[in-house]
Amino acid sequence: FPPRSATVVDGTLYYSNEKGVFSVKLAVSATYAVETVCSSSSNLSNVSLNQNCVYSPKGIFVCDGLLYICDEALDAVVTYDIAAKSLTDFAICDRGELKNRISHHPLSVTATDDEVFFLDEDKIKVYDAKTLSFSAYDEAAIIGSDKIAATKYEKKTYLLTASGKDLKLFEKSSDGLVSRKIVGNEVFQFIQAVCAADKYFYFVNNTT
């Protein structure tokens, strides 16, 4: 089954596909053993946050020992405690009227040292893992994007969103997100993945 999203932390690769979320320890031996983190339930007629399972995992990211999982069927972001090897009772979903709630399908997730960013269909939601508080950015420019990456450079936070032929760069400020121009003449055909490390963004651009 083709992977939907992947992230690496402490020498372990985590990836999602329609069957669930899985992990592989890297550079241990010539062979790689795949372990199941959490399997997807096929019971889509009874989708519930209380079933202790995932249904349709997409974007994933690790921050402070928690694996954040965007579940398209749940319309929620659930968390998996890596040390405890179990899903937690913490979820971010569309239940309630607060502006920070995931309003429809959470598509992708990324994080810096202290903030977790969730890409919704028309918003970027922010969860501050230190203060346990939420905020949200309404940003028309991200509509259509299905991938997000974040990094910090010179004490500023930058976000990159992508979909198909489109890349959008933003700087996070006290007034919201400020669009920044991407310099270059690269022709984007099909951007399949984005990530960030240090001050750089990386992406897979399929030009065939």
Task: Describe the model.
- It is a single chain.
- This protein has strands at residues 5-9, 12-17, 20-25, 34-39, 57-63, 66-71, 76-81, 86-93, 108-111, 115-119, 123-128, 133-138, 147-153, 156-163, 166-173, 176-180, 191-197, 200-205.
- It has a four-stranded antiparallel β-sheet, with no helix packed on it. Strands 5-6-7-8 form a four-stranded antiparallel β-sheet, with no helix packed on it.
- It is built from no helices and 18 strands.
- The two termini are 22 Å apart.
Q: Outline the biggest β-sheet.
A: 4 strands, antiparallel
Rg of Cα set: 17 Å
Cross-sheet strand order for the largest sheet? 1-2-3-4
Strand percentage lies at over 45%
What pattern of helices and strands is seen along the backbone?
A: EEEEEEEEEEEEEEEEEE
Summed over residues and divided by their number, the pLDDT gives a mean of: 84
Number of helices: 0
Helix content: under 10%
Quickly describe the structure.
Helix content is 0%, strand content 54%. The chain has 208 residues and is an all-beta fold.
